[in-house]
Design a protein that fits this description.
This protein is of the alpha/beta class. The chain has helices spanning about 45-60, 75-80, 90-100, 115-135, 145-150, and strands at about 5-15, 20-30, 35-45, 65-70, 105-110, 140-145.
Length: about 160
């Protein structure tokens, strides 16, 4: 029996103002299918959006495979590497998910290098979409449609 392949998750979080309108998005590759989700909240902070994105991503990446989280946010990477990084309730929940996984969870500060630029552009666009959507709908979390996930640059 071979081990499950590593799951790579790209995460983006954004917020205008503090507190303000915030959004997050994640896309995971490496499991049986590509998955993604976007969400947001009103009167929030970028730190809360980062914690919410990590929590949602780990909940969406079921199984025992190891996980590599890629983000351009040093705050987010540090929060995953040394949980609980912050005493905000969102980070405490994320830390519990990291510790409960059967496989290891690593986080990597990734820059827009060749081969990853498109991936970050994709999740950034969905985080921005979520940030705008909360202005009219309020807090939400929803899967990124499969038809859109087919456009995720996997290389």
């Amino acid at each position: 029996m071979s081990a499950e392949p590593e799951i790579t998750i790209w995460i983006s979080a954004a917020c205008t103002g503090s507190p303000g309108y915030g959004g997050w998005a994640w896309v995971a590759l490496g499991g049986p299918e590509i998955k993604g989700q976007a969400g947001g909240d009103r009167r929030t902070t970028v730190q809360a959006m980062a914690a919410g994105a990590v929590t949602a991503a780990l909940q969406g990446a079921a199984g025992s495979a190891s996980v590599l989280i890629r983000s351009e946010s040093a705050y987010l990477v540090e929060g995953v590497a040394r949980p609980p990084f912050d005493d905000q309730p969102g980070w405490l929940k994320a830390a519990a998910l990291v510790q409960a996984r059967a496989g290891p969870v690593r986080a990597e500060l990734s820059k827009r290098v060749v081969g990853q630029k498109g991936a970050f552009t994709f999740v950034d666009a969905w985080a921005a979409f979520a940030q705008e959507k909360v202005k009219t709908t309020g807090a939400f979390a929803a899967p990124i449609p499969k038809s859109n996930l087919r456009n995720f640059p996997s290389s």
